[in-house]
Amino acid sequence: MKNNLLIAAMLLSSTVLATGMVVADPMTPQGQNDASWRYTGAFYAFLPARTTGTTTISGVTAPVDLDLGQVLENLDFAASGRLEAWKGDWGILVDANYYSLSADGNLPGPAGAPVGINVRQEWLGLIGAYRIANGTYGQSGNRFTVDLQAGARYNSLRQTVNIATPVPGVTLGGDESWWEPVIGARGKWELNDRWTTVASMEFGGFGAGGNDLQVAVNAGFDYKPWENTSVIFGYRYFSMDYSTTLAGGPFAYDVEQHGPYIGIKYVFQ
Fold first, then answer.
1. Strand (E) positions, the chain?
2. Among 2.40.128.100, 3.40.1360.10, 1.10.390.10, 3.40.47.10, what is the CATH number of 2-268?
3. For the chain (length 269 residues), average pLDDT per consecutive 10?
């Protein structure tokens, strides 16, 4: 019974995740000590073309192998956003993400009990950044910048399977939350007055709260069709290796995802 439930649960254990996205702040002229604050706000979505790994609920582990259609079919709600504030070479970054997936069904057999599955993940990160490089390259004098980042992130992860048996019902899995350190780096290279290429990498967890390692690597473009608004898009790799033990047994989420991301960014200063 548990194996059947876990296989169903894993068909939900993926989402439009996004953290550490390659949102870049507005560049200041090289050598200028800008005393005013500059702000960037962005909303975006990560669309995992493939999700692989394992998930564990109540001590039972099953494989995950999903495409994007299987994820979107059971998506309840997802929202991701990032706000950056810069003054000179110093920046403050706030990154937030929420998603929830669920499905209902029945256990196998003629008298199968109703089953409800829910997977939810949310986080809020507060990260400081420092610009270590700010210059030009090539004959055209296009700009480039490189930032280093470090901070902390609050995470919350839910994996539950509810079985509506005669009173009382049965709930497998549960909710876990933890704080973890985050470090990262980001580079930005202007191609012309409308196009910019951006790459970033981010590492979190390092064993804090049960999260051995969380990795995000992004490469893409920033296209600016209007003065203060850009379309951001590219490709992303994300992995998470979390494990702990709840009252009902081992609880774990060990997955890798990759696929395109897309969003919109607004600069105000």
1. 38-46, 50-57, 60-67, 75-87, 90-106, 114-137, 142-163, 170-190, 195-205, 211-223, 229-246, 249-268
2. 2.40.128.100
3. 43 42 59 74 88 86 81 81 93 90 69 75 93 92 95 91 71 89 96 95 94 94 93 94 91 90 89
